[in-house]
Design brief:
CATH superfamily: MetI-like
Oligomer: single chain
Strand content: under 5%
Helix content: over 70%
Number of helices: 11
Shape: elongated
Distance between the termini: 34 Å
Structural class: mainly alpha
Order of helices and strands: HHHHHHHHHHH
CATH class: Mainly Alpha
CATH topology: MetI-like fold
Length: 284
């Protein structure tokens, strides 16, 4: 009698994700945005090319999203701006996670005076409204895209420091950590091999939310002149450049604004789904 091979079933987190409509919508939107960013040089024209004779033209077969006040193709600028916005979002989160995780690990592991010092520094950053502090940092560094990433990251890392420190304080008295200490593991080994891997779940969930928030903050900085500068096709800068023409060319500021909306929505839906999936109290 033949023995049937067991059928490989999707893992529990994957099954939860496939049953989460918000997560599926967010993932679908993110895939579309990534494809648009990768294919922009192929499917869209030069986003900086100007043609004053074609200024403020409504959507048509030639310009599917119309043109702006300088005759530039809005679709081309939105398509190329997708990659810029994703670069900003992921760049901010990577930098913020690196800083926050380091501070949180050191504070939670070392304890005592070091913990107090590092957490007071973290509290100082929490004391300022994030957008105002980011404006100040961006103004000091100079208005450009790379400085925008640095400015937003420098106001985003404290939440990761708090998350990691709280996890480390809960973990450092657990049996596996005590066993590692008994076997002679030093502080660096404890942090990197035993504590850090067990703090990744809350970091991952928080990061999925923060990518959208970073894109929104960076767009806000560009809108008020502290971020990307013209003619860079960054969505916030595009809205700022075209807002004066909204009455006669509503498509020019609306298209990049919708891009911001959909991108932030995608990451928020993904963040909600990941929080539900990775919640240890969840059930199938």
């Amino acid at each position: 009698m033949a023995v049937l091979a067991p059928v490989n079933r999707p893992s529990r987190p994957l099954r939860r994700f496939l049953r989460n409509p918000g997560g599926l919508i967010g993932a679908s939107l993110l895939v579309v945005l990534i494809l648009l960013a990768l294919l922009a040089p192929i499917i869209a024209s030069d986003p900086i090319n100007q043609n004053i004779a074609e200024r403020l033209k409504p959507p048509s077969a030639q310009h599917i999203l119309g043109t702006d006040q300088l005759g530039r193709d809005v679709w081309a600028r939105v398509a190329h701006g997708t990659g810029i916005s994703l670069k900003v979002g992921f760049g901010v989160v990577v930098l913020a996670v690196l800083i926050g995780v380091l501070v949180g690990l050191l504070a939670g592991t070392l304890g005592g005076a070091w913990d107090n010092l590092l957490m007071r520094v973290t509290d100082i950053f929490f004391a300022f409204p994030s957008l105002i502090l980011a404006m100040a940092i961006a103004a000091a560094l100079g208005p450009n895209l790379n400085n925008t990433i640095i400015a937003v990251a420098l106001v985003s890392w404290p939440i990761y420091a708090r998350l990691v420190r709280a996890s480390v304080l809960a973990l450092r008295e657990r049996e596996f950590v005590e066993a590692a200490r008994a076997l002679g593991a030093g502080r660096s080994r404890l942090m990197l091999r035993h504590l850090l891997p067990n703090t990744l779940t809350p970091i991952f969930v928080q990061a999925s939310f923060d990518v959208g928030g970073a894109i929104l903050t960076a767009a806000g900085l560009s809108f008020i002149g502290f971020g990307a500068q013209p003619p860079t096709p960054e969505w916030g800068a595009m809205v700022s450049e075209t807002r004066s023409y909204i009455a006669e060319a509503i498509w020019a500021p609306t298209a990049p604004a919708i891009g911001i909306l959909l991108t932030v929505l995608a990451f928020n839906l993904l963040g909600d789904a990941l929080r539900d999936i990775l919640d240890p109290r969840g059930r199938d």
